[in-house]
Amino acid sequence: MLSTSFDTPALAATSSAPGWLGSLGSVGEPSDDTSYAAVAQRINAVLAQQGIPGAQVVYADNGTERAFNYGVSSVATGDSVDSDTVFEAASLTKVVASYVVLQLVDEGVLDLDRPLSDYFDYPRIAADPAAGRITGRMVLTHTSGLPNWATGPSSPEFETTPVGTIFEPGTQWSYSGEGFYYLQKTVESLTGKPFQQLVRERVFDRFGMTGSDLVTNPAFGAVTSVGHTADGTPKPVRNFPRANIAYTLRTTALDYNRFLRGALLDGDGLTPATRDMMFTATGSADHGGSDKESIEHIKWGLGIGLQSNELGDAIWHWGDNGPYKAFFIAYPETGRSVVIMTNSEDGLNAVDGIVHEFFGPSTIYATRWIKEAE
């Protein structure tokens, strides 16, 4: 396993050449760490093989953090990806939101097993009595019964489009962005604050995430990565004037690593019992795919995916906003983690190669499971 080459903190290595992977340490001098350079070149090759224009990768354990930048933020401009380049994190947003919700549970603001309809009258579900039985726990574990989306969540008609359950809440697993948005509206009603303010106060400020926002931030305009289709065509950068805790987070891999390490692995801001509950399987995450072996090794906690394999128990999540793909995996018992941000529709195709680089040979059931979840 390659972790032995990461026993000491990395020196920084940078280059303006697209395709070079550079460490983002505190020193702006070239690194003479040959083991680091070799790893950088191998990750470079994995990303290049998949035709990914740009990416950020951050590996960390309990004593080391290594960050790598790759390629360009846009093939149209040729601007290199660096430590400040901002990516759409897509559904990695849900993990940040779940952490905020669980803080409110600790504070007695929300009971996970009380129907959300007891707290908030959500007009979009008014025609479906079954939706009135949805709880916060069901939302976090994707058993709410609501579809992923009733209509495009960025569309003007989204807020007025009715949404109803597709099965009895709490009876089976089905990924749902609509459930998270219902939870968002409930929390905003309870706290009197927009969710982007809650995330700013409870996550970004706490962990020093200066390159992150839940809505479009004009200050990030010059450093925002452009998404690309599978054939490398750049897509227009989207505007997110309305926060949606299912998918609108823009961030950097370094920022997300700060959240992952502080909030999830260290449990900063949560009671130990709640943090442990977050990582406890609530049941099957059977999405109906044919890869039964991967389904057997994937469960769902509170807002987060769980995987068991040869290396032990891991927490993970993926993000898919079309021309942006993201992924993280971490092993709480060993404190080892990796965060991956890409600006390509093919970004998830590079995950296995990058994870193997840092964790060695192992079965990555999560990526197998994802292939049939989408």
**How large, in whole angstroms, is the Cα Rg?**
20 Å
Record field, number of beta strands: 9
| Dominant shape | globular
Q: Report the end-to-end length measured between terminal Cα atoms.
A: 31 Å
Q: How do the SSEs run, as a string of H and E?
A: HEEEHHHHEHHHEEEEEHH
Structural class: alpha+beta
Largest sheet: 7 strands, antiparallel
Q: Which stretches are low in confidence, meaning pLDDT under 50 for 5 or more residues running?
A: 1-31
Helix content: 25-40%
- Tell me the number of helical segments per DSSP (H or I, 4 or more residues long): 10
What does the average pLDDT come to? 91
Q: Order of strands side by side in the largest beta sheet?
A: 2-1-9-8-7-6-5
Percentage of residues in strands: 5-15%
Describe this structure in words.
There is one protein chain. This protein is of the alpha+beta class and 374 residues long. 29% of the residues lie in helices and 13% in strands. It contains ten helices and nine strands. Strands 2-1-9-8-7-6-5 form a seven-stranded antiparallel sheet, sandwiched between helices. Strand 1 (54-60) and strand 2 form a beta hairpin. The chain is globular and about 60 Å long. It starts with 33 loop residues before the first helix and ends with a helix. The model is unreliable at 1-31 (pLDDT under 50).
